[in-house]
Amino acid sequence: QVQLVQSGGGLVQAGDSLRISCAPSGRTFGTYNLGWFRQAPGKEREFVAAIRWFGGSTQYSDSVKGRFTISRDNAKNTLYLQMNSLKPEDTAVYYCALSNMWTTIPKNYGDWGQGTQVTVSS
Asked: Is pLDDT at 53 greater than 90 in this prediction?
């Protein structure tokens, strides 16, 4: 089991940018694929973005494509989600996660960060 520690998040205005981070505690990400998910109050956890450990290809949900960028810095052993042109509907708790699969389904991710709140005011 991998402990993931998230940082960043906060309260911003619509149109602003924000970056959140995720790093494993005491080890590297290894060969896991990495994903970002979010969960708004009263809603199910939804896929946001993912990045493959090999090759670094990425995938995004339609709702964030063109505005969010997932990246990983292997030297810093850190996963990032750069969020631009934020909208009030992006308000949610954001989670990073690891998977042995290339997938957008939350149940296929085995290790999760603690979550970080992102609130976008209109």
From this structure: no
